[in-house]
Amino acid sequence: FPSHDNVLDYVAETDWGHYDISAADEFVSLHPGNLHLICNGLVRSTQSNIGDMKSVIEELAVQHPRDSFICTSQFETNCDNIYFTNDIFNLDGDINEIAYLSTKCKTIVGKNSGPFMFAHVKDNINDPSKSFVSLSHRYSDSYVCDVEGIACHYYHCSSDDNDKVLQSIETAMNATGTHGGRAIVLDYIVTGN
Question: Which residues lie below 8 Å from residue 82, measured CB to CB, with a gap of 6+?
Fold first, then answer.
């Protein structure tokens, strides 16, 4: 087993040629604004108590009508800029296709489970225009916890409060410039209200 000094060498690289990514490419071509992937499915390892995030996602969709919000778990909505991966891919198992779609998104939000974890590929981690929001009880659940040298913006929020989750996602959506190459724990920033 080779020894590497840089933990970023262990971040996954996916050969997208093994997957049918045409539906993702078609979706991207039809939605030219900012794309935001929200992995809002339920978790099975108790790392988060946040539900389907419907109210947070709908608030974001109303505030950003030119952006597209792509969710991994369906809910009823009247917002015409909220989309669901089931409708995009029409597959029983689409976790790798969602990972590919994440490489086209500006913001990637999730609960350290399922599709959110599959979105942690070099294409995203090494991209300074990307922002992640990790939503879980413990910062140590975050994929890049205490990792230095990441190019993407990476935020962690341990709150289950919808207003704080909304603020955390908005912080990530508005991220610009450099950030020091480490994840930022937002709980200290957003708890003032």
Answer: 57, 58, 61, 68, 69, 71
Q: What is the mean pLDDT of residues 79-93?
A: 95
What count of residues does the chain have?
193
Q: Give the global pTM.
A: 0.91
